[in-house]
Write a sequence for this structure.
């Protein structure tokens, strides 16, 4: 992805937490509470999409906000609160996912416990088709899964994703393009029909 | 804009992340090119979409847990980050967990003992070298002969005499 492509991007970063930063000058505790209220649902959902486990997602969300409370730079002028929260959440979630993979061999020998609550996941993602897409995302690399989750489930702009992942805007665009291309391939392999009628139904 | 350029920007175009000019050129190409339209449609059909989210009871349950955890954290002093030595200790502990205890312990003690012996031997060897240098050898100072007065090298008993060839002259 060249400079020209990156230059075609139109996003401009704005600090949407300016009001909370102003509040922090007089009352830090109230400002921390305001950060929690503003982002708790989005952070919790992001953790659920990555972990597919409500209990673990709540644990991660708690830890993220405790880290935020103890972060001395949280209300500094240039500090990007939202990007920082999503970055910490992603790191904690992927540590858990990595630990799960390490334990896979041991757990395979034990009786299975359904921790992923399929009914609740269906509630969160919407319809059956989206459940299939979420399942297909599990077959992608961690990098692709992470960027798709940040863009489509957490609804971050390309600028915000660049901030969260610490990469350039052009890299966000090329990585998302590759990730989505790979997702189409996986859905093809799973036999999911991606035709014009389906698109009309999805968009209806 | 050709097909290759268009396809590399299709996802950003669908996400509304392109400038109006680039966006218009892609729209124009997609509407005129059947193969790019097919790819665009497949990408659109594969777009993950967030649903309505957690049911309210689970959200409230999560909020309560987060609030309680924050209250508890506020009442607890901020933990001091571990020192370098403690981090090293933790790392060795983690290594020990992965290696069977007797073997790990033996390897650990052998490493510490080996390092101590190597350090001692190195000190002893250096000290011996220095002693040999001071006791057994002359320290040579290199300096141009012109910088040192000739009298400095003569013994105190030395009495200058006229050169032999000069005295034997007629």
């Amino acid at each position: 992805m060249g400079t020209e492509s990156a230059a075609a991007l139109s996003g401009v970063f704005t600090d949407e937490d300016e009001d909370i930063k102003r509040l922090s000058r007089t009352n830090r505790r109230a400002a921390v509470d305001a950060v929690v209220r503003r982002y708790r649902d989005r952070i919790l959902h992001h953790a659920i999409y990555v972990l597919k486990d409500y209990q673990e997602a709540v644990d991660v969300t708690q830890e993220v906000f405790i880290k935020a409370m103890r972060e001395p730079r949280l209300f500094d002028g240039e500090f990007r609160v939202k990007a920082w929260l999503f970055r910490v959440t992603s790191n904690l979630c992927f540590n858990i996912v990595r630990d799960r993979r390490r334990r896979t061999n041991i757990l395979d020998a034990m009786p299975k416990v359904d921790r992923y609550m399929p009914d609740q996941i269906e509630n969160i993602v919407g319809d059956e088709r989206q459940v299939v897409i979420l399942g297909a995302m599990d077959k992608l690399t961690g990098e692709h899964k992470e960027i798709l989750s940040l863009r489509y489930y957490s609804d971050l702009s390309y600028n915000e994703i660049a901030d969260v992942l610490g990469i350039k805007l052009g890299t966000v665009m090329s990585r998302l393009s590759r990730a989505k291309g790979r997702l189409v391939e996986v859905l093809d392999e799973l036999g999911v029909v991606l035709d014009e009628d389906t698109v009309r139904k999805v968009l209806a | 804009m050709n097909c290759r350029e268009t396809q590399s920007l299709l996802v950003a175009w669908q996400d509304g992340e392109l400038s109006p000019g680039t966006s218009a050129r892609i729209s124009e190409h997609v509407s005129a090119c059947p193969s790019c339209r097919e790819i665009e449609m497949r990408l659109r059909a594969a777009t993950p979409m967030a649903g309505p989210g957690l049911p309210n009871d689970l959200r409230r349950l999560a909020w309560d847990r987060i609030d309680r955890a924050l209250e508890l954290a506020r009442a607890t002093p901020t933990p001091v980050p571990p020192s370098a030595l403690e981090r090293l200790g933790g790392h060795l502990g983690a290594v020990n967990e992965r290696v069977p205890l007797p073997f790990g312990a033996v390897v650990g003690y052998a490493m510490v003992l080996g390092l101590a012996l190597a350090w001692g031997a190195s000190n002893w060897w250096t000290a011996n070298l220095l002693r040999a240098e001071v006791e057994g050898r002359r320290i040579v100072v290199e300096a141009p002969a012109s910088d040192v007065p000739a009298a400095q090298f003569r013994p105190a008993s030395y009495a200058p005499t006229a050169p032999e060839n000069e005295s034997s002259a007629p």
